[in-house]
Specification:
This protein has three helices and no strands. By secondary structure, it is mostly helical. Keywords: Cell membrane, Membrane, Protein transport, Translocation, Transmembrane, Transmembrane helix, Transport.
Length: about 100
Amino acid sequence: MFAGLTGWHLLIILAVILLLFGAPKLPALAKSIGQSMRIFKGEVDELKKDGKDGKSDQATDGTPTNTTTQNTAVQNTAAQSTPAPTPVDPSTESNPKS
């Protein structure tokens, strides 16, 4: 993704960031980004841990983990309850096209 960036590109990007945010705001911006990344990593680790525990809990509960059969049954009944349109022969159509 960033393979084509050279040192000059990075300097230009840093200069633009400095101009946009100003020198006094950069430390606060870096601190905020660091805190956000730390929170994000913690949440990802927690989800990974919960995902592993959740899979083993579902397997021991005896509850079905795959609901596609239930969804398919609902879709089939919905498809059966709506009538199919009847085909119309264009030669017997009552409205002639102008």
